[in-house]
Structures are given as C-alpha cells and as structure tokens.
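Lab notebook, design round three. We kept the backbone fixed and only want residue identities now. Task for the bench partner: fill in a sequence for the structure below.
Input structure tokens:
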C-alpha cells in the first residue's frame, strides 16, 4: 500500500466516526464520575475498551479498506478501458512529446499494434506534430492514410485535473504531467459525397458574340449565313465536349449550363473557345470575338444565372474578346489579348448624349468628378461637361482636391477669370456639404470608386453618371443611372467631344475650353500615336473648329528643367529584359512625379525592340506603376499585367498602385508577374 495515497471526502469522515463517538463516551464517563465513583470507574473501563477497539480497527482496517477501494476502482477502470478499447472511433493516448502510449482496437486496425511507443509523426509523416504540441486546449487536423481521410482531434489531458476532480483518493504525485487524447473520425465517404454534390451542381453561363454585326458586315453577303453557322457550330461543339446544355436564344447570344466539375478544365484551358472562334476565316475581314460570363458557387441557380449576366456585362465593358468568371466576390478574367476595335458608328454616343441631357435637365445642380491626382484628360473632359451643364442653365462644379503641375496650366486660365464662377473648382469636402438628392454626379475618366477624388460623395446622391474609356474591373460603382464605358476610345475627352455634338444645338465650347479638351486628347494618345482611330481625329477636328489652338496647347505643356532631368535620369538607369523596359522615376523635387513617370514610360517605347515599359514612382508611401505598350500585334496587353497586381487600364496604357515596398521591390514584383504570365501564355 502506497502511504502517499490517502482517503478523503465523505468516506474519510465516515471512517472517523469511532473517534467522534469516543468524545461522546468521554463525556458520559465524566458524568458517571459526577454521579457515583463506582459507576464512573465502570464507565471508564468500558471507555478504555472502546478506544482500544476503535484504534485497532482504524489502524488495521483502513489499509484493507483502501486496498478494496483501489481494487474496485481498478475493476471499474478495466470496464471503462474495455468500453474505450471497443469504442468504434479510433482513439489513442500520446505523451507530451507526441509518442503513442496506448491505442484502442479500431486505431490498431488502422495503424497496427507495432506502432505503440512510436512517435505519431513516424506513423503519419504528413502530420506536423510540432503544431499539435503548440495547441492551447484542442486542435483539429486532417490526416490521409491508406486512401482514407480522417478528421483528427487532439486534446490535452491533465493529470492534475484528474487529481483535483477525484473525491475518494488523494494523489500526491507530479500534477504537471500532461497527456494527449487523439480521436480520429473517418470522413472519407462524407467528403466524397460533398465533393460529388459540388461537382454535380449546375453552373450557369452566357456567351455573346460581341461583334456579330460588324463581323457580318465585313463578310460577303452570300457567306454570312455560313459564317453564322460556323460560329454556332464552334460554340456548340466546344460546350458539348464538357457535357454542357447550350441553347441559342438570339442570333448572337447563347445560354448554357455545365457541371461544376468541368469548370476546372475549362478554366485551365483559359476558355480556348475564344481563340477557336477568333480563327474562323471564310473571307470575313474582321475576326469574330466572344464575351463569356459564368456564375459559380452561387446559392441558387437563379443567382448563378444573375452572376453570369453580370459577368458578361463586365466582359463587354472591358472591351470584349474575353471570359469573366464570377464566384461571389472573386472575379477571374481570361483572354482579352486582342486590341479593342473602334466602332465606326456614333449611334451609341448619340443615345448616351440624349440620356445625359435628360438627367442634367432633371436635376438642380451638377457636380463633375475625376480621379485622384487628376490629369489633363480627366480635367479636360470635366470642363467639357461643365460647359454642357451651363448651356442647359444648371449650376455646375468640378471637384478637384490637388492641383498638380500637369493640370495647373489649364486651371490657371479659368481662375480669376470673369467669364467663370469663383466656385467652378471645389474640393470634395465642400462638395459633400452642397450635395443632395437633386444633384447629378458625373464621374469622368475613372470607373473604380476608390480611385475617384471623393469616394464618399457616391453615397450622397442616387444620380450617378459614368463616362470613361478604361476597361471595367471587379471594383465598380454600384447602380449608376447612366454608364458609358468605351474601352476602344482613346480618351475621356474624345468621348465628351462626341457627346457635346449631340447633347444640344446650343452647346458651343469656348477657345480655352477647347484647348483643355484638346490637351487631354493629345496627352492621352501621346501626341496621337497610341489608340487613335477615325473618331479620335474627328473629335480633334471638332475641338479645332471650336477654337483649340495646337501651338498654344503645346507651349502650355512644355517641361521644366527639373522634369526634363528626372526623365533623363530614369531613362539612363532603366533596365532592359528581353523586350521589356523597367525604370524608376525619381520623385524628389517634382510636384507631379506620377505624370513624369507616365511620360518616362512613353519615352521608353521609343527604344528599338521594346514592346512594353513599366515605370515605378513613389509618392507619399505609395508606389505608382505606369505601364505602356506599343500598338498593333507586336505589343502586349499591359492591362492584363496590371490587373494581376491589382490595377487596370487599357491594353496599351495601364497602371497600378502598390504599398509596403520600395520602387525596386515593386519593379521586381512586376518582372516576376510578367515572366509567370508569359509562361502561362496569358500575355
């Protein structure tokens, strides 16, 4: 019998009853002596015998009773052990180092009896036991073993807690000793059913031939029916190869449903149907391009269909010839390699101009807002819309928070000018105090809310209009009353110039307003070298007729010596990697380093064999990446590269913003992104 083991609790006091009775008996003996000495001696003799017997029983009976209690506990423990051994859940006990001390029958059937006294890490090599030993109380890990998947629970067992909870025996040993209980739940079948259920879910999608009419018009009339049949056959055959159900609902529109399990293969092929349809050539001068939208992981088929429609709208807004997969908040893009083709018709511009006129006439005031660190295109297009609103007799204000060197030559012509109101230009905080429900807010040259001069203003009115030439991204302004986004346009000034020609006969630009718009058009096209089409020159002709002076614009935007030196320094230290150029533009001493960075990116394209350029500029802790690409088939789509790192833009003009890194780290990040995308075939 271990003397360290003692009896405690109620049983302890129960065994001490003879001693308590001895106290009572002592009182009786004293009382007997008080009554009669002879009776007292007799009682004393009986008391002595009682005490002797009580001591004998206490000294000899207690160990025997303790043994009996321990034996009972052991027998009871054996019953529990038997039940635990036969428990239909694999169960084991580990020591504090992760060594397996004991296993029940079902765990032994899985790993074998010889695994006892071995580290659990040796038995399950994929399990990181160090992470298990760091757990607070309990942790869960998935373990794959013999083609089975077990959700395993590890839980600390404290001997101290057992000692404190025990009410019969008092253990005075090492209370800090810890053990680990391990439960393994076989979830192989459950997970297989979950996976099969997920794979069998239907995913809704939509396919739109985004240039159907243009492709048909570029084909001989006798071959148009054949072209339409080839397009339909290609699309139908491709989708049926993935067991999809596809139905043509319009001449240029299809809907389909496909099992979720096929989506990984479709995405891995990067929607090869885009390339297959583009290669159709039966004499059509224009390649056929598609927009595909897919809604995945939706809670219902109706929601999946709605997400597919939203994805198609996003693909169309980004210029077409691409697929967009919307899975909740996550949006993935595929394709989009081809350059946007300018549409020769201006019908859409006329329709949008008429709608914008009705919106302005229906509101009491108009606010026009561009993007942060506004450039000349943003300001010029805002000035054009300002003139439209004033012609319609509506108060108008342009929101601009920071007047940079790039826009100062334009703004100076309007400030202190008696022909213009003193509050023509206001800050976003002042605009927030003036705005109400009867305000029309027009967003120009940007379609991402976080990039606007005042994102908080978007919630102050329900009448929001978007006019932009950048491709849409997953971040978009919610529920605009009018959205006119044309990625093929060279600039926002080009779009506004077209709108002004249709918004009303009374709209006439003043010469300094025409100068501002012409400057935006000229700078965004890099002196009419990038993204210029017939409509670009038509817009320039309209501005010229309105009084724009090319020489006056050119003189206003000449560079200072500091800017010229910064550009030369950036070009001198640029790095060439294959057909890509990378450079860091110094920001010290420059008021608008981001504008200079964009100019450096344009300059690098003048180097022989350079197809794209990336320039990093640091402003107030943020790294601004300016990306440029050459026009035509030789250039790459820099927008796809910028989107991969969180930015956006055009196929030839794009940008992004990075934080928590240096300019050189940002360029390294861009380089690795370009390499991986080239390897994937994404650019």
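Proposed sequence:
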């Amino acid at each position: 019998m271990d003397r360290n083991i003692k009896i405690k609790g109620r049983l302890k006091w129960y065994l001490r009853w003879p001693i308590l009775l001895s106290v009572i008996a002592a009182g009786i003996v004293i009382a007997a002596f008080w009554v009669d000495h002879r009776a007292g001696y007799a009682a004393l003799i009986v008391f002595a015998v009682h005490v002797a017997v009580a001591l004998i029983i206490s000294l000899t009976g207690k160990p025997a009773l303790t043994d009996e209690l321990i034996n009972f506990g052991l027998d009871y423990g054996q019953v529990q052990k038997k039940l635990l051994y036969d428990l239909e859940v694999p169960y084991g006990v580990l020591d504090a180092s992760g060594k397996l001390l004991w296993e029940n029958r079902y765990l032994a059937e899985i790993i074998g009896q010889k695994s006892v006294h071995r580290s659990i890490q040796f038995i399950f090599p994929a399990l990181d036991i160090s992470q298990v030993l760091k757990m607070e109380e309990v942790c869960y890990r998935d373990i794959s073993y013999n083609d089975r998947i077990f959700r395993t629970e590890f839980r600390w067992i404290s001997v101290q807690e057992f000692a404190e909870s025990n009410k019969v025996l008092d253990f005075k040993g090492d209370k800090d000793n810890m053990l680990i209980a391990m439960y393994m739940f076989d979830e192989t079948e459950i997970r297989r059913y979950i996976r099969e259920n997920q794979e069998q879910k239907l995913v809704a999608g939509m396919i739109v031939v985004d240039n159907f009419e243009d492709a048909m018009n570029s084909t001989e009339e006798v071959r148009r029916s054949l072209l339409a049949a080839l397009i339909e056959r290609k699309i139908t055959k491709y989708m049926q190869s993935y067991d999809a159900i596809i139905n043509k609902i319009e001449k240029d529109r299809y809907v389909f449903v496909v099992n979720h399990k096929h989506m990984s293969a479709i995405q891995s092929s990067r929607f090869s149907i885009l390339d297959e349809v583009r290669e159709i050539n039966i004499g059509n001068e224009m390649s056929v391009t598609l927009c595909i939208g897919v809604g995945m992981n939706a809670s219902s088929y109706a929601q999946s269909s709605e997400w597919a429609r939203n994805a198609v709208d996003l693909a169309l807004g980004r210029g077409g010839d691409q697929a967009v997969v919307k899975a909740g908040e996550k949006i993935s893009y595929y394709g989009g390699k081809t350059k946007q083709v300018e549409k020769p018709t201006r019908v859409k511009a006329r329709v949008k101009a008429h709608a914008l006129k009705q919106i302005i006439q229906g509101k009491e005031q108009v606010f026009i807002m561009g993007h942060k660190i506004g450039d000349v295109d943003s300001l010029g297009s805002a000035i054009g819309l300002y003139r439209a609103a004033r012609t319609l007799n509506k108060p108008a204000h342009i929101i601009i928070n920071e007047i940079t060197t790039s826009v100062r030559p334009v703004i100076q012509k309007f400030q202190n000018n008696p022909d213009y109101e003193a509050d023509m230009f206001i800050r976003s905080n002042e605009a927030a105090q003036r705005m109400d429900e009867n305000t029309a807010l027009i967003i120009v040259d940007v379609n991402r809310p976080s990039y606007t001069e005042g994102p908080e203003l978007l919630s102050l009115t329900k009448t929001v209009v978007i006019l932009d030439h950048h491709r849409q991204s997953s971040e978009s302004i919610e529920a605009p009353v009018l959205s006119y986004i044309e990625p093929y346009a060279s600039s926002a000034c080009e779009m506004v110039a077209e709108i002004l020609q249709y918004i009303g006969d009374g709209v006439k630009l003043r010469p300094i307003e025409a100068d501002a718009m012409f400057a935006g058009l000229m700078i965004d096209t890099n002196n009419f070298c990038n993204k210029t089409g017939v409509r670009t020159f038509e817009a320039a002709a309209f501005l010229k007729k309105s009084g724009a002076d090319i020489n006056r614009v050119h003189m206003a935007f000449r560079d200072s010596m500091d800017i010229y030196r910064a550009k030369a320094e950036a070009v001198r230290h640029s790095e060439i990697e294959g057909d890509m150029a990378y450079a860091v533009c110094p920001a010290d001493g420059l008021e608008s380093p981001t504008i200079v960075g964009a100019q450096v990116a344009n300059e690098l394209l003048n180097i022989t064999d350079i197809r794209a350029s990336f320039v990093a500029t640091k402003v107030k802790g943020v790294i601004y990446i300016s990306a440029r690409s050459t026009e035509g088939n030789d250039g790459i789509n820099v927008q796809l590269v910028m989107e991969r790192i969180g930015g956006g833009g055009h196929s030839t003009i794009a940008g992004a913003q990075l934080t928590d890194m240096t300019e050189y780290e940002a360029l390294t990040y861009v380089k690795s992104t370009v390499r991986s995308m080239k390897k994937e075939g994404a650019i």
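Keep this in mind before ordering anything: The longest helix spans residues 37-85.
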